[in-house]
Predict the structure.
Amino acid sequence: IEPPATPAVAGDQLLIDRTALARGVCPRRWQVVVFRCPDKASQLAAKRIVGLPGETVTLRAGDVYINGRIARKELPTQLAMAQLVHRAAWDREHKRQPRWHAERERTGWQLCPDGFRYRPADPVVGQAAAIDWLGYHHSGYRPVRDAMAYNAGLSRQLHPVADLMLTGEIQLTGRGQLRLQADDGRQRFDVSISSPSGRLSLERDGRQVAQARLPAGCFERPRRLVLSLFDSQLLLAIDDRVALRYAWRPAGDRVPPPPPRPLAIGACRLDVVIRQLAVWRDVYYTRPRWAEWAVRGACRLGRDELFVLGDNRPISDDSRRWGNGPGMRGKLLIGTVAGD
């Protein structure tokens, strides 16, 4: 008698690369690994590596600190871990009030099916033209929080998140300036992109702190643009290549409320087309119920121990709350999630 057929259900299967250890590509920080649970060897778990052997791990204000310093993610890891907050196309599709608002009564910004288009509303001759701003305001003008849709029934404190990311496909025509603005509640960053020269300039609270240059005419064809403020670091990337990077020391555990307009896009004298415009947020590591390790103080790992965290931070059973200690022994590792 043949056993009854079991239908494949999406999400029930996970491909494991068991060669990762032998090839020396594991363990690395931010990798998703599969291992045998320390308190139940018959059960497998998939978590993300945060701390490596011998390191001291602390979770503060949603961020990971290693040996007292904030752990910054490179662009590929940021893109892999970013949590979607809003797509501009949703507002049109669901016939609701747009979250991106033009800030001038006479504006050149127009809503398109999957983004925005800008054409100068008033030609200016012989004088400096003002920046025409398009600002992002979260739902209800409240701050972005670490809500997770699949935890909708979980009662817990939600935390405001200031580590945001802006992505979109941008094309520029003409001679002028594109501005990108990001504000985390402590400081405001302004990125200026001159077209067609490709000159980049970064200001922090009105003072220039970095500059770079792109190939002339870079944006004459659509380019994927990423602007992020993750882990006390600003990254500007064009077609997934970092063009501008600026890091600063975190100011402390007390996080001020994020501003009502954390992101903005400005234009001057240019024709601008922005498609696939989206806002994302960084992960926010919480202190779930019964959590102890790395949330009540610094946690030192042994020579063969790893500190792992689940991506479903509020309820994940991981290094924060294992009863026998935070460390996951290296011998319990099976491999990495294929493709990670």
In short: The helical segments are 20-23, 75-81, 88-93. Residues 84 and 294 are 27 Å apart (CA to CA). The two ends are 40 Å apart (CA to CA).
